[in-house]
Every structure is written in structure tokens, then in C-alpha cells.
Amino acid sequence: MKLSKLNSRFGNKGFIFSMDATFALIIVVFMLSMANIYVILGSQASSIDVQTNKYGDDIIKILDEQGTLQTLNQATINTAIQTLIPSNYDISISIKCKIYPAGTEQTVTAGSITPTDKDVFSGTRIFIIANADTTQEKYCSSRYWIWLK
Amino acid sequence: MKKGFAFTITFFTLAFLILTLSLFLYSFTASSSKRAVEISSLDRINTLSSSIETSAKEIFNSHSLITITSTEVDSITITENIPNDITSFNTAMQNFKTHIESSFTDTTLDLNPIKTTLPLLIYPNLILYNHDFANRNISIIPQELNLKGYTITITTSYSISSCDTVLTSGTFPIQLTATGSGSTSCSVPLTNIDATKPNMITIKSGGNKKTTLYFDNPQLLLIGNLDNSQITISTKIKLDQSGTFAQKTIFVTYPESILSMDIPQLNVKRRSTITLYP
Predict the structure, then answer these.
(1) Is the model's pTM score more than 0.90?
(2) Which residue of B has its CA nearest to A33?
(3) Under an 8 A CB cutoff, do A128 and B59 touch?
(4) With an 8 Å Cβ cutoff, is A139 touching chain B?
(5) What distances in angstroms separate CA B42 from CA A125, B66, B163, B166, B264, one per listed residue?
(6) Are B253 and B113 contacting, i.e. CB atoms less than 8 angstroms apart?
(7) What is the mean pLDDT of each run of 10 residues along chain B (278 residues)?
(8) ipTM greater than 0.85
């Protein structure tokens, strides 16, 4: 009885108002969602990538200048890595040394196993293990892979 | 009705603005990300290049039998034996070149400018320190009159009978101390010569000419060992550090860029020489 009285007084304005509000809400939610998606995509900071690479460069440079890489000893290199690397990063290092003209190759790996499900950054550094006898001199390439844990 | 229309227009304008701003932010970050990748790549190239340079310097220090030192801010001392055998240096550099070029196809190490005369360039005064290994000569060639003097110390394996001098007086200071076997020696105390004219000091053994030091314009010094007995020569070069050279650091490099990296993917071409001192 009351409902029919209200209907007769306001017609179907209430229904149209509700529909209008619903459509407006849908459009607002859609617009905000789109904006939010782009903001989130945009806020994935690339500076972190540069920083990760810099950490890798710095670590391999220190290991080289300390003479740790030149030991070609996995345990020694692992110990040095633990003291250098920030706790939220992990690193893997592969060293390949060659003697000329024999072409004899020596490979040493240190650090963690490189993950396949994370963004990994890499770089290379050259060093030599000098020897007065050039046939015993080692020419080495050390490659690192670094990632956020 | 008009109010509703105005409200809808305002709302759509605001929504469009928010969406546009978020797209701008996204596009800006995407381009920042691209720059970050480029920066990282350039960093990697720089790390590789500087480590190659460091290794080449280590080969020079280990195999060239040339020692570069500096005990004073305005002078540099280069010590080596004449004759000097650089076979070991050339072999080590060739091995290094093979290693680099086989590991990094974009990188080239050109040994041609250094393998015959092993030239060194002393900065900031641009003094060329060169060798003629076959004729057992060392030459120090300034580009202009920008030196403050030479102090030469020579140790020979032969006995020294005299140091004969033909010098023209001037304002350029030179000093020579020569020590030979059997406690023999001779010296030219601190003397000012005219460095724009020919001057000569000859170290003799029993009347025979053994080692010659020839000075000429502009402050050029040519040291020659006339026979095969090995002598050690230490040349302290005092640099003029006034005017344009004031407070500039002394360093020594190869005169030419021997390391080149050409990375077409990044449109990067890098040429560099090797810094040998400090």
C-alpha cells in the first residue's frame, strides 16, 4: 500500500537514480582500476636493476683487487663473497682461466646456484695470474650473476 | 538537466585526466627502464674495459723489465736495462690478445703500435719515451721545451775509465752518475747546458766508447749502448709543472689507443690506451 503510494508520488525516479549511481560507480571503479594498473606498472623501479648490477660489479672488482679471484680456490672465494654481499642478494661466480699456447683450461665456480625464476644480472671481468714464464701465465675471465633473493 | 550534464562532463574530464596522468607515468617509467638497461650495459662495458686495461698494465709490469716510479710530484723515473729483451712481454701480450679476442668478439687489442719500439707517453707534458731495441737506444723526446732537467744513473758491467763531455753552457740542468765494475765510476755533477744545441757525454772503458748520452733541441736525450754488455739506466725526468701543467697529475700511457670495443647493438664504440703509471 505504502509502496504503491510512493510510486504514485515519485514515479520511477528512484529506480533511475539507482541505475545512474550504479553506472557512475562502475565507470569510477573502471577508471581508478585502469589508473592503478598503470601506476603499479610504472612504479616497478628500474633503479633497483642498476643497483643490483652495481653490487655485482663492486663485488667482483673487490675480489679481483684483493687477489681472491687469483687464488682460484672455491672455498676462499665463497668465504670472501659472504663478507661482501648484502644479505638480500645472492651471487654466482664462474672463473675460466686459460694457459697459452697449450690451451689448458681451468674452471672454478663459487657462490650460489643461479635461479631460473628470478631476474638475474650479469657482468664480466678479466684478470691475469702473472708468471715470469709466459707458458705458465693464466689469462682468466670471471663472470658473475647476481639477483635479489 | 543542465546541472546533470555539467556534472557528467566534469566527471569525465577528471577521469580522463587521471587516466592520462597514469599513462604518462607508465610511459615515463618505461623509458627510464630502457635508460637503466643502457646504463647497465655501459657499466658492464666499462668494467670489462677497465679490467682489460688493468691486466695489460700487469703484463707490462711483469714482463717489460721497465720500472716506472715517482718519488717527487714533479718528476718521474724510468729504469731499464739496455739491451732489453722484450720477447717475453710481446709473447705475454700476444697471449692476452688471443684470450681477449676469442672471449669477446667485439673487442680488439692492437699490438702493432707497441710491439717494436714499446713507446711510452708521459703526461701531462707529452714526452715520448721510445726504444730502438735493435740498436740498443733509448730516446726521450719532449714536444717542446717543457722539462726542468735530467738526472741519469747508469750501472755498467764493464769498468769505467772516464766520462768525456762536450757541453755547451746554458740553463737546462743535467746530472750523471755512472758506476762500473771493480768500483770504477765517473760522474758529471749538476751542470746547466744549452738544451737547444747538441751536447754529448761519452762513458769510456779503457779508451773505448761504451755508452753515449746525446742531448739536442728540444731537450731531447738519446742514450745509446754501443756494445752488447748490459747496462742499467735510470732516468729521472723533471717536468716543468708551471703554467698549463700546474698541479696536473703525472701519468704514463702507451701513445696510441690499442684497445677498441665496438658494440653495434648499443651503438657504442670505445677506444682506449693503457695507463701504465700510476
Answers:
(1) no
(2) B19
(3) yes
(4) yes
(5) 14, 33, 56, 57, 13
(6) no
(7) 76 80 78 78 86 92 91 90 88 92 90 91 91 90 88 91 89 92 90 90 84 90 87 92 81 90 83 90
(8) no
